[in-house]
Design goal:
Helix content is 31%, strand content 33%. The protein is α+β, with helices and mostly antiparallel strands. The protein has a single domain, classed as Roll (Pnp Oxidase, Chain A), CATH 2.30.110.10. Strands 1, 2, 3, 4, 5, 6, 7 and 8 form an eight-stranded antiparallel beta sheet that branches. Strand 1 and strand 2 form a beta hairpin. The longest helix is centred in the first third of the chain and has 17 residues, at 11-27.
Length: 147
């Protein structure tokens, strides 16, 4: 039997994979696990909208001039990821991009600009089109601009 589908971790497994990824990325000083599925990965830290606590998640990103764009895909779930709700409530975020640490401001990309970015994104990461096809929500793109 030939296995052709990519298995996406969900629930507890996804939380465990995320925690290990975040820990290794940090402990290595941004030298390990800086790529995923062939794409560069950053650590995004937001402030919890209810708890007020820092929350960090590893995310693949697309360079966009001086900014970086992340995708709030939540693996194609019908719900936005928690980190997206956090940065909408408070767009001041921090990033670790490899060895660099920086403060940034998050802005949701909309309209024609989003359509152009989406086309660039799926050209190199076609699984995002699969995610979009499997959900009724429009998957947000978020630009992170150094503050």
């Amino acid at each position: 039997m030939v296995w052709t589908e990519r298995v996406e971790p969900k629930g507890r497994v996804l939380r465990l994979v995320t925690a290990v990824h975040r820990s290794v990325y940090r402990r290595s000083g941004g030298r390990l696990l800086t790529r995923g599925r062939g794409k560069p990965v950053l650590l995004l830290t937001t402030t919890g909208r209810r708890s007020g606590r820092s929350r960090t998640v590893p995310l693949p990103y697309l360079p966009d001039g001086d900014a970086l764009v992340v995708v709030a895909s939540n693996s194609g779930s019908d719900r936005h990821p928690a980190w997206y709700h956090n940065l909408v409530a408070d767009p001041a975020v921090t990033l670790q991009v490899g060895r660099r640490h920086l403060a940034a401001r998050a802005e949701v990309v909309a309209g024609g600009e989003r359509a152009d970015l989406w086309a660039r994104l799926v050209a190199g990461a076609p699984w995002y089109d699969t995610y979009q096809a499997g959900t009724s929500r429009e998957i947000p793109l978020v630009r992170l601009v150094e503050a």
